[in-house]
Amino acid sequence: MIKDPNSITQNEVEDEPATSKRPVNRRFLLFKIDLFVLSFVCLQYWINYVDRVGFTNAYISGMKEDLNMVGNDLTLSNTVFTIGYIVGMIPNNLILLCIPPRIWLSFCTLAWGLLTLGMYRVTSFKQICAIRFFQALFESCTFSGTHFILGSWYKEEELPIRSAIFTGSGLVGSMFSGFMQTSIFTHLNGQNGLAGWRWLFIIDFCITLPISIYGFIFFPGLPDQTSAANRISMTKYIFTEQELHYARRRLPARDESTKLGWSTVPRILKRWHWWMFSLVWVLGGENLGFASNSTFALWLQNQKYTLSQRNNYPSGIFAVGIVSTLCSAVYISKFPKARHWHVSAFISLIMIIVAILIRTNPLEPKIFFSAQYLGGVAYAGQAVFFSWANIVCHADLQERAIVLASMNMFSGAVNAWWSILFYSADMVPKYEKGCYALLATAISSGVVSVFIRSLQIKENLAKKSVPYIDANDIFGEDDDDENQDEDEGENLSAEFGDEEMTEVPNPFR
């Protein structure tokens, strides 16, 4: 059943350690969550995209010629990667409910880092496909798994900004990979008999390894699975037991009677959440068709641009993605009447414009560049749709894990054949089919978003509002002061002694 703060007994409170009666400095706690939770998942997603985009950069920087790759080999290798991603998606999210994310995510980061290192030794297309399949198995823990973790730490009004920062970290990784490949080709190509693209994979691994170690030591995982008594991690030096207890109680109440079992599937399937959010991200993910299938880099190669231009010019797409993602998150978080579907409708409009521009002028550089950069706006959909699903599904932990994984899984399943059908390498430079596909997904994703909003309104009206849990209320504090947020860091009561709790400003609030 869902626990109401009023139903929590005095015995439950007294069972907590004596220090749990101290007030928690909320801003300082949020700052620490940002510093150790958000930092690791962003670093992990950043290196994920450095590794992933690095493959395309290697392809256009000599790997294609060295390994005699022809025709649709690049598209096929990406499809193999997508299949591995699909296979690992839901299992990885469910594993996070059983194995502490600190251990599992750090292990997966190390595993795909080692596989990335193995790429520098490949000598055939078959070896590439084998390695990329297993890379994807481990990388599939990152995106939906992180959104699941963020939804376990952050409130509804805090979530969009954090989701946007997380999405932006991957886009920064995409930009960084292009510039890094250009620098590597300039300074390391031919060193020790290795081509520049092989050095890229070696350096990627050298960056990935310390991120994995950092996560194992400092990342606290899920609040329900975290304890300050853990001897291996540094959590005990970062969070007090009282802060962790507060972190578990600060979010809206959820149904604690639901467990992972055979009843989970029918419980999820009878609700609209799984069906509609999976559908909207299938469509929203394909709005990224031009950006995610390296069409710009291939177009630049087809038009005989230099190697540095091929690696650097596509970075503008990711820059637009970062700006649009952050602006969308600020809009949803800061404006009371803002809604997720507003941003979805805006993305749909921009994608329609992109499709028309490319279809009518595919060989005009100024127009093609403008359209490709505008296409980066679609990246905002990642933060918008996944934070939306996190909010709607918050009351059911297992449903939230499966819905978030399914969104990414079905998007990947469709993209496995969608990219071959509409954005394959042999369709350069006009991408006629891709333009029509983008028109269809742009319009459809906007319509489905409006429908989801109508279902959400209907659901909210049909059920009683769940009381909001304020952990300091549970600890028996006086909440009569309207300025409690400002005063909560003041001295403790005489019962616990006078100890000033330093307030640290949070840059993300």
Automatic annotation (TrEMBL):
Topology class, membrane: Multi-pass membrane protein
A GO term, aspect molecular function: pantothenate transmembrane transporter activity
The organism's place on the tree of life at top rank: Eukaryota
Keywords, comma-separated and alphabetical: Membrane, Transmembrane, Transmembrane helix, Transport
InterPro entries: MFS, MFS_trans_sf
UniProt subcellular location: Membrane
GO biological process, one term: pantothenate import across plasma membrane
Main location, first listed in the record: membrane
Pfam families per record: MFS_1
Record's compositionally biased regions (Acidic residues): 475-502
Transmembrane segments annotated in the record for this chain: 29-47, 103-122, 134-154, 160-179, 199-219, 272-300, 312-332, 338-358, 370-389, 401-423, 435-455
Region (Disordered): 472-509
GO terms for cellular component: plasma membrane
Family per similarity comment: Belongs to the major facilitator superfamily. Allantoate permease family.
The protein's name in its UniProt record: Pantothenate transporter FEN2
Organism listed in the record: Saccharomyces uvarum
Taxon lineage: Eukaryota, Fungi, Dikarya, Ascomycota, Saccharomycotina
Gene: SUVC03G0890
